[in-house]
């Protein structure tokens, strides 16, 4: 490891001054470095995203402890290296580089927002490492070095809309989101999907708000107005975490009940609901691939261990946690299969790995680096948990390239040989996108 | 550099020489230690450290630009990050256009985020950015023109003190909101990423990183010389005079607003250059660079290093960011905000003139004691008087 | 700068009776009124200053002396009234501070205002008549004539040995002189001097009076506002007493101090 | 069959049954006695399938059965007290003591393992429909009123006969008019209605003048007589114009409400920044601490005395004031007091303090949102004309004004207020008059901080209670104080309200984001026009 400072001491004095500024070396690497496999944790512990990401850091630490208790991997103990990218996107890239180049981690679990993933992407490609990304996202991506264990839009949004159409008879749709890529893309896909189901344009209202929007009076009133046109109306919410609490509080204040205008959200889970009085929200929905209320022995066992680990018998679990757990187990399995932590061996080994998920089935890593998932629809209960009202019968394979978007409808991803491509165009038969 | 120095000996003081010396040493040593030394050697500088250092240097240039207007003119801009980000976006747009068909959709013209959102053609303001000289010009002009327009209004109307600070904050906040909008055509929250080439060189190769690092060092050195030249000139003396007694300057027949405007625009352009060098080294530009908190942080760097000393501003930027890098890893990660916050409080209480300012003061006192004539009193600006607090209601 | 609108339209031309006075006067104030939130700082104030004249203005606190200077130098816009310069050729109410300073009106503040973080010599360099535009000043170099002029001023204000000290390091009296020196460097036609001897020793006061007389003798018109009667007596010039924003009495110091209303104002009823 | 059609049939069925009962003499008695108690074991068994379709069908069957036990089962289902076992497949009602057999109402001896019958929105609506229909003849007028409104909203033609019967019997004039309106709502869209009757219905509905009336009027069928369509079109036109006016008023109300939030957030800053000249970047964190105080108070109340919950905010307000005030005093004594006269350095120090406070809260309470509940008196809304006013927002406006008045009174009328003004105007003079300026400084900063804490109590009702809470208000707060004019409390009031209203008037046209950008640009331009804010202090003293 670099330790310019001590070296420079022997050099000329002038150099020492310069070198002191360059002495970026952190703490010295422990002597046992050779005997452990390092696992990087790249989640914000401060700043705006700490609210969501801190739990995932704890999850990885928990999984590392569990794995070490079970004997580690390839006979070595795992060692978690935690950094704090502080909700700062360039810092994500810097920390990713530090984890891979300086700490020499074998794998990184990290990121929440799309922009943080986009920020670290070139780093993982350049330094050839592995990132497990555990959050539902807009899709439109498949990279060799990234494994996506969260939902693609077809694993969350479309089943939710199907449920509302079939079970609630919804005819009119409000697509409300925060103005960033995930809601934009999800709403584009949903708009195309709804139109393909015969919903006329005047029955779709799309609304975007800035991050952290806190004054929802006007927009909730607009939704109320839109919903009083005589047709059953629902809100599909891709509102980002922070803005949800004031949004739901305003819904409650203006007396919009789930039986009048149900809201189905894709970013509201147990963790977010912990900050809200859910009594006025009973019946509003969320679509995820996991809920804490999933009634399986695996889940009960997981929750018990998790609570024991965190020494908090009220600690909740949520979907991105499950995605982290699945990703972690897949990586362990792939490393055992490959017999090494070398990314070039682990990346191909990961494809086809299947591990049990917490909702009673198996999730498998597909050639597009996304996993198969069941989709669950839950209604909010007054205790902040979800009542699962629908579960897809089988597992759904991720459509990383949405067939409902112009630019991506001809693209597929397959990281197996011989294709080895994240954006293969089935029309032109070439790797490298849609072209023009 | 040595020629400048002989031609104009007054341009550099001892601290300036040390500063430039360290900069030159870094610009020479780091590439050698990175490229010519085996990676196994203990003195090898890994590439990620090179990029990190390059990033610090661009921050130092940014801090320098703040010190020029805050330290010497008394304009506390809480929106300097906006100029930095605009320079960065201009460079980012160039880099985006260089991706060509290598984007995930393979579209030869449109960047990925436009394809993704079903845009059909390139918006007009993206024209020309595929040509480097144009982009380089925009690195200067985009922040420069914004500063010109904003400053022209604000200084003519004699908006000063906290009022000016708050409207610069409002400016960067408005830009933040605007750039977050996906409809703006700048990639929304995701910003611009996934750059491939700069001027035909692979942006991720060690060689390119080294060149960018050296360029950053060069820009910082030249930026320092420029600022130093400006503040030592008659023009610069008027600036300090405006900071200390603006009314007096007006009664002496100077158009204070024009002086402020020139300094403000120069500072914005320096910030723009810093942004343009920053983007290829960190690989992303996103609207959060416009966030008011970022701009406040820049002020904090300058204050830590020593306001009105130029060298101090650069030093403060490097120190605070190094502290950030250091504290956000390892055992300290959960507590780094305590340390950073504590550092700011401690500096304010115990080193009110910042690190370099305090050093100058100590040196001046020692000289006085030893009866050595002062070197350059211009390096020791006092705190400009702030308007007395007003009574309520 | 006041943003109060003019309450009445200003007469386009002065009344014929006043015309002769106007064309001869260097400075001409007629019926100038300034109001701050209902308080009349100046109340129809009228007076003239002739070219080459030195005038002393006295008056109790709040009489409107500083406001008067603010009006002349463009810092405050009058609600009503005329302010002309250079024999009526220039309407000062339409100009800002910088333009007025460039025309040749210099002002010394009540609180000595020098550039504290500049050396004494730099203070004079900044004030010295010459290029005022921003961009050319980046590359400006001092000419030999300018250096000479500065040396001359140093002689006049007796600060030669302090020229490399910081302005802020000077004593109160030295700052007053430096400020007067800066006025001289500007080479104005009219100097407005606000309480130049406040806080000075008796010797310094006498020296200052001498200095101002010297400046006046060199062809500069001077208006001095001062409380110190010894100093005003030393100056030996025409005296004007302001009260509640208008002229209460005018004449020699003896005449003015004999005026019953002045006594009443100063000593109370 | 679509869901809504099913629902409609179910509701219709219920109503028809009811109609039959009501029509025949003595039916109520018959029902009560259950002389020919119908067999409901089949629907009960269906409920035990725990499948939404079956549950819905069973609900319909239960209601049609007329069994006295049915009502109890429906009520139990609504309360989540209806449970089922798989072997034997049977449902029970969960009583206080244990399981109860829904048919016999007797406790079950050896209880099997049970799970609750699941309820979703669809079932909730079915329950509502059943309850609503049953209530049309309820002895309680309030319930009848509610039922009439529910029927009117559903606009279900099948409910017409039942409605007619209920109307004929109705004595309460208010309920009667609600039923008449409900009837009109149904009649408007029904085929085969005479033009005269339909026009009467149009007039009746149009008189409501609200958004719902608009939707009903639009349901006039294409086959209706031309004069009916004309009348409806005219009514729609009038209502739309009327609503546009109301929506303007509504936006102003929203603006005042947003303005009051801005006022609360900014008013503490108007003291620490405006009066004392401290560029207080930790102001937002004081607001946050106030919000966390509310959280702690509510937690304690939940744990020790849940009955006090409605008073939790009232209790939290003084506690938040004292707690954040104390924190403010500690900050002033340990840091700020060394920085008077160096205002810009207070920016640096308070920025550091804000980072420390945020991280401290994150460490103590975790990074996630904490739940702060709304007391019952802050929930719900009422209407004035077409103006919808929520209690929560109303109370926040009232609270903001109270805080403002209290602060003004403190500064104007109390000894400490006088001393504060004296110290900020002329420190040395105040000191020489025997005022302990140190103490006054601490008290002033404490007052500003304490007010920020009280604001936090109010903001906890509408925003996230998280460590980041303060960050989202700090920029707006500074903007408000500066826009209003530093050092002028009235300026802060007017500034907050005008920015709030302007924001909400812009939002419908420009959208939330562009509206906010436009507002920022307006403020920037405004400051050019008035470089010292809205209520600039005039006179010489400013620049002296």
TrEMBL record, chain A:
<keyword id="KW-0732">Signal</keyword>
<dbReference type="Pfam" id="PF13433">
    <property type="entry name" value="Peripla_BP_5"/>
</dbReference>
<dbReference type="InterPro" id="IPR017777">
    <property type="entry name" value="ABC_urea-bd_UrtA"/>
</dbReference>
<dbReference type="InterPro" id="IPR028082">
    <property type="entry name" value="Peripla_BP_I"/>
</dbReference>
<protein>
    <submittedName>
        <fullName>Urea ABC transporter substrate-binding protein</fullName>
    </submittedName>
</protein>
<feature type="signal peptide">
    <location>
        <begin position="1"/>
        <end position="33"/>
    </location>
</feature>
Automatic annotation (TrEMBL), chain B:
<feature type="transmembrane region" description="Helical">
    <location>
        <begin position="12"/>
        <end position="36"/>
    </location>
</feature>
<feature type="region of interest" description="Disordered">
    <location>
        <begin position="370"/>
        <end position="393"/>
    </location>
</feature>
<dbReference type="InterPro" id="IPR001851">
    <property type="entry name" value="ABC_transp_permease"/>
</dbReference>
<dbReference type="InterPro" id="IPR017778">
    <property type="entry name" value="ABC_transptr_urea_perm_UrtC"/>
</dbReference>
<feature type="transmembrane region" description="Helical">
    <location>
        <begin position="332"/>
        <end position="351"/>
    </location>
</feature>
<feature type="compositionally biased region" description="Pro residues">
    <location>
        <begin position="382"/>
        <end position="393"/>
    </location>
</feature>
<feature type="transmembrane region" description="Helical">
    <location>
        <begin position="258"/>
        <end position="278"/>
    </location>
</feature>
<feature type="transmembrane region" description="Helical">
    <location>
        <begin position="131"/>
        <end position="155"/>
    </location>
</feature>
<keyword id="KW-1133">Transmembrane helix</keyword>
<keyword id="KW-0812">Transmembrane</keyword>
<dbReference type="InterPro" id="IPR043428">
    <property type="entry name" value="LivM-like"/>
</dbReference>
<feature type="transmembrane region" description="Helical">
    <location>
        <begin position="210"/>
        <end position="231"/>
    </location>
</feature>
<dbReference type="Pfam" id="PF02653">
    <property type="entry name" value="BPD_transp_2"/>
</dbReference>
<feature type="transmembrane region" description="Helical">
    <location>
        <begin position="82"/>
        <end position="100"/>
    </location>
</feature>
<protein>
    <submittedName>
        <fullName>Urea ABC transporter permease subunit UrtC</fullName>
    </submittedName>
</protein>
TrEMBL record, chain C:
<dbReference type="GO" id="GO:0005524">
    <property type="term" value="F:ATP binding"/>
</dbReference>
<keyword id="KW-0067">ATP-binding</keyword>
<feature type="domain" description="ABC transporter">
    <location>
        <begin position="27"/>
        <end position="269"/>
    </location>
</feature>
<dbReference type="InterPro" id="IPR051120">
    <property type="entry name" value="ABC_AA/LPS_Transport"/>
</dbReference>
<dbReference type="Pfam" id="PF00005">
    <property type="entry name" value="ABC_tran"/>
</dbReference>
<dbReference type="InterPro" id="IPR003439">
    <property type="entry name" value="ABC_transporter-like_ATP-bd"/>
</dbReference>
<dbReference type="InterPro" id="IPR017781">
    <property type="entry name" value="ABC_transptr_urea_ATP-bd_UrtD"/>
</dbReference>
<dbReference type="InterPro" id="IPR003593">
    <property type="entry name" value="AAA+_ATPase"/>
</dbReference>
<keyword id="KW-0813">Transport</keyword>
<dbReference type="InterPro" id="IPR032823">
    <property type="entry name" value="BCA_ABC_TP_C"/>
</dbReference>
<dbReference type="Pfam" id="PF12399">
    <property type="entry name" value="BCA_ABC_TP_C"/>
</dbReference>
<dbReference type="InterPro" id="IPR027417">
    <property type="entry name" value="P-loop_NTPase"/>
</dbReference>
<keyword id="KW-0547">Nucleotide-binding</keyword>
<protein>
    <submittedName>
        <fullName>Urea ABC transporter ATP-binding protein UrtD</fullName>
    </submittedName>
</protein>
């Amino acid at each position: 490891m670099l330790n310019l400072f001590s070296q420079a001491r022997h050099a000329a004095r002038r150099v020492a001054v310069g070198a002191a500024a360059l002495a970026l070396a952190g703490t010295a690497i422990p002597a046992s470095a050779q005997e452990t496999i390092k696992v990087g944790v790249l989640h914000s512990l401060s700043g705006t995203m700490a609210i969501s990401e801190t739990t995932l850091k704890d999850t990885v630490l928990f999984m590392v402890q569990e794995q070490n208790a079970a004997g580690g991997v390839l006979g070595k103990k795992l060692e978690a290296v935690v950094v704090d990218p502080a909700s700062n996107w360039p810092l994500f890239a810097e920390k990713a580089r530090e984890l891979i180049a300086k700490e020499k981690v074998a794998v990184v679990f990290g990121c929440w927002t799309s922009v943080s993933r986009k920020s670290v992407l070139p780093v993982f490609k350049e330094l050839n490492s592995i990132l497990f990304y555990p959050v539902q996202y807009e899709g439109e991506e498949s990279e060799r070095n990234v494994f996506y264990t969260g939902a693609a839009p077809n694993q969350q949004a479309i089943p939710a809309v199907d449920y509302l159409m079939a079970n609630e008879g919804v005819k009119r749709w409000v697509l409300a989101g925060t103005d960033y890529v995930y809601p934009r893309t999800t709403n584009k896909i949903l708009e195309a999907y709804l139109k393909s189901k015969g919903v006329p344009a005047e029955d779709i209202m799309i609304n975007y708000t800035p991050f952290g929007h806190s004054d929802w009076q006007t927009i909730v009133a607009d939704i109320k107005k839109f919903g009083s046109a005589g047709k059953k109306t629902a809100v599909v919410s891709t509102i980002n975490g922070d803005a949800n609490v004031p949004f739901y509080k305003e819904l409650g204040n203006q007396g919009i009940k789930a039986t009048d205008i149900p809201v189905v959200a894709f970013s509201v889970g147990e963790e977010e609901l912990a900050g809200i009085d859910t009594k006025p929200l009973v019946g509003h929905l969320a679509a995820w691939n996991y809920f804490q209320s999933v009634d399986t022995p695996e889940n009960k066992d997981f929750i018990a261990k998790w609570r024991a680990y965190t020494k908090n018998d009220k600690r909740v679990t949520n979907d991105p946690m499950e995605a982290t757990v699945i990703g972690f187990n897949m990586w362990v399995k792939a490393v055992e299969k490959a017999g090494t932590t070398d990314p070039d061996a682990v990346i191909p080994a990961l494809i086809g790995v299947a591990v049990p998920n917490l909702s009673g089935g198996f999730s498998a890593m597909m050639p597009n680096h996304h996993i198969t998932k069941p989709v669950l629809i839950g209604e909010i209960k007054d205790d902040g948990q979800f009542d699962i009202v629908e579960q897809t019968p089988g597992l759904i394979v991720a459509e990383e390239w949405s067939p409902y978007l112009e630019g991506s409808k001809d693209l597929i991803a397959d990281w197996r040989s011989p294709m080895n491509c994240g954006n293969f165009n089935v029309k032109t038969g070439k790797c490298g996108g849609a072209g023009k | 550099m040595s020629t400048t120095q002989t031609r104009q000996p007054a341009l550099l003081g001892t601290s300036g020489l040390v500063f430039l010396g360290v900069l030159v040493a870094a610009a020479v040593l780091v590439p050698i230690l990175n490229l010519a030394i085996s990676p196994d050697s203990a003195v090898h500088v890994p590439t990620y450290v090179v990029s990190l250092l390059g990033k610090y240097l661009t921050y130092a240039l940014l801090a320098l630009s703040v010190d020029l207007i805050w330290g010497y003119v008394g304009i506390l801009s809480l929106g300097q990050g906006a100029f930095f980000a605009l320079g960065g976006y201009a460079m980012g747009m160039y880099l985006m256009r260089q991706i060509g068909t290598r984007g995930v959709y393979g579209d030869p013209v449109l960047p990925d985020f436009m394809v993704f959102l079903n845009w059909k053609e390139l918006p007009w303001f993206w024209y020309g950015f595929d040509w480097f000289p144009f982009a380089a010009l925009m690195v200067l002009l985009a922040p420069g023109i914004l500063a010109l327009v904003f400053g022209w209004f604000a200084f003519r109307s004699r908006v000063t003190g906290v009022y000016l600070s708050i409207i610069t904050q409002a400016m960067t906040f408005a830009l933040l909101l605007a750039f977050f909008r996906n409809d703006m055509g700048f990639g929304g929250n995701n910003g611009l990423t996934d750059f491939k080439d700069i001027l035909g060189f692979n942006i991720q190769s060690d060689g390119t990183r080294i060149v960018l690092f050296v360029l950053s060092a060069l820009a910082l050195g030249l930026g320092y010389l420029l600022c130093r030249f400006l503040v030592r000139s008659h023009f610069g003396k008027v600036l300090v005079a405006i900071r200390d007694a603006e009314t007096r300057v007006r009664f002496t027949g100077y158009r204070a607003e024009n002086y402020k405007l020139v300094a403000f625009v120069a500072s914005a352009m320096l910030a723009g250059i810093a942004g343009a060098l920053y983007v290829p080294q960190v690989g992303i530009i996103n609207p959060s660079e416009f966030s008011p908190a970022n701009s406040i942080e820049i002020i904090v760097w300058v204050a830590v290093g020593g306001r009105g000393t130029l060298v101090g501003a650069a030093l403060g930027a490097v120190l605070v960011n190094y502290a950030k890098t250091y504290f956000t890893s390892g055992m300290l990660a959960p507590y780094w905000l305590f340390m950073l916050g504590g550092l700011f409080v401690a500096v304010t209480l115990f080193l009110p003139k910042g690190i370099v300012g305090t050093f100058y003061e100590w040196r001046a006192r020692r000289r006085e004691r030893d009866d050595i004539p002062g070197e350059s009193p211009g390096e020791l600006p006092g705190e400009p008087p702030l308007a007395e607090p007003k009574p309520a209601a | 700068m006041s943003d109060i609108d003019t309450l009445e339209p200003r007469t386009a031309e002065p009344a014929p009776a006043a015309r002769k006075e106007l064309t001869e006067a260097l400075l001409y104030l007629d019926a100038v009124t300034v109001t701050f939130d209902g308080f009349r700082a100046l109340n129809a104030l009228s007076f003239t200053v002739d070219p080459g004249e030195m005038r002393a203005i006295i008056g109790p606190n709040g009489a409107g002396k500083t406001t008067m200077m603010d009006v002349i130098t463009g810092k405050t816009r009058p609600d009503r009234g005329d302010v002309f310069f250079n024999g009526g050729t220039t309407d000062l109410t339409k100009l800002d501070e910088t333009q007025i300073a460039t025309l040749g009106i210099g002002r010394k503040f009540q609180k000595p205002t020098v550039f504290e973080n500049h050396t004494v010599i730099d203070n004079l360099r900044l004030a010295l008549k010459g290029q005022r535009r921003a961009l050319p000043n980046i590359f400006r170099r001092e000419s030999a004539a300018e250096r000479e002029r500065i040396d001359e001023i140093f002689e006049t204000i007796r600060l030669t040995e302090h020229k490399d000290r910081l302005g802020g390091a000077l004593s109160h009296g030295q700052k007053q002189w430096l400020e007067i020196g800066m006025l001289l460097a500007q080479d104005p036609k009219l100097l407005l001097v606000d309480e130049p001897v406040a806080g000075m020793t008796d010797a310094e006061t006498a020296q200052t009076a001498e200095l101002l007389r010297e400046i006046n003798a060199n062809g500069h018109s001077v208006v001095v506002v001062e409380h110190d009667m010894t100093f005003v007596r030393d100056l030996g010039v025409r005296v004007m007493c302001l009260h509640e924003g208008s002229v209460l009495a005018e004449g020699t110091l003896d005449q003015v101090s004999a005026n019953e209303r002045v006594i009443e104002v100063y000593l109370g009823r | 069959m679509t869901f809504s059609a099913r629902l409609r049939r179910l509701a219709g069925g219920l109503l028809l049954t009811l109609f039959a009962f009501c029509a025949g003499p003595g039916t109520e008695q018959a029902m009560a006695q259950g002389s020919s108690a119908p067999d409901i074991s089949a629907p009960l068994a269906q409920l035990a399938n725990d499948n939404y379709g079956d549950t819905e069908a069973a609900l319909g069957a239960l209601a049609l059965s007329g069994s006295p036990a049915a009502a109890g089962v429906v009520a139990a289902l609504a309360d989540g007290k209806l449970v089922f076992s798989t072997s034997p497949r049977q449902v029970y009602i969960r009583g206080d003591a244990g399981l109860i057999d829904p048919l016999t109402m007797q406790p079950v001896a050896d209880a099997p393992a049970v799970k609750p019958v699941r309820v979703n929105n669809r079932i909730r609506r079915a329950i509502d429909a059943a309850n609503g229909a049953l209530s049309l003849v309820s002895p309680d007028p309030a319930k009848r009123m509610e039922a009439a409104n529910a029927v009117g909203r559903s606009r279900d033609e099948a409910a017409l006969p039942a409605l007619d019967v209920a109307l004929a019997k109705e004595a309460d004039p208010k309920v009667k008019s609600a039923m008449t309106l409900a009837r009109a709502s149904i009649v408007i869209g029904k085929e085969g209605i005479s033009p005269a009757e339909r026009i009467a219905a149009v007039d009746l509905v149009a008189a409501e003048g609200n958004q719902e009336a608009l939707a009903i009027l639009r349901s006039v069928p294409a086959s209706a007589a031309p004069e009916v369509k004309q009348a409806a079109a005219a009514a729609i036109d009038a209502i739309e114009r009327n609503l546009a006016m109301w929506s303007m008023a509504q936006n102003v109300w929203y603006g005042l409400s947003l303005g009051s939030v801005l006022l609360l957030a900014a008013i503490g800053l108007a003291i620490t920044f405006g009066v004392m000249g401290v560029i207080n970047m930790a102001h937002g964190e004081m607001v946050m601490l106030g919000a966390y105080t509310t959280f702690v108070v509510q937690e304690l109340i939940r744990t020790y005395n849940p009955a006090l919950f409605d008073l939790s905010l009232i209790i939290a307000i003084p506690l938040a004031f004292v707690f954040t005030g104390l924190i403010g005093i500690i900050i002033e004594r340990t840091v700020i007091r060394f920085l008077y006269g160096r205002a810009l350095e207070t920016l640096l120090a308070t920025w550091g303090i804000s980072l420390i406070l945020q991280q401290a809260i994150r460490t103590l309470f975790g990074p996630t949102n904490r739940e702060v509940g709304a007391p019952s008196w802050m929930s719900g809304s009422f209407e004035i004309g077409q103006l919808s006013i929520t209690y929560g927002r109303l109370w926040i406006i009232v609270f903001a004004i109270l805080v403002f008045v209290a602060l003004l009174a403190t500064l104007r009328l109390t000894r400490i207020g006088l001393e504060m003004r004296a110290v900020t105007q002329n420190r040395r003079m105040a000191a020489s008059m025997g005022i302990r300026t140190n103490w006054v400084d601490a008290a002033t900063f404490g007052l500003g901080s304490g007010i920020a804490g009280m604001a936090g109590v109010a903001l906890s009702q509408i925003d996230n209670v998280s460590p980041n809470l303060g960050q989202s208000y700090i920029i707006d707060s500074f903007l408000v104080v500066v826009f209003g004019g530093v050092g002028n409390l009235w300026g802060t009031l007017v500034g907050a309200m005008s920015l709030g209203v302007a924001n909400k008037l812009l939002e419908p046209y420009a959208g939330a984001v562009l509206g906010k950008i436009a507002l920022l640009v307006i403020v920037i331009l405004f400051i050019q026009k008035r470089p010292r804010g809205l209520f600039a202090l005039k006179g010489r003293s400013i620049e002296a």
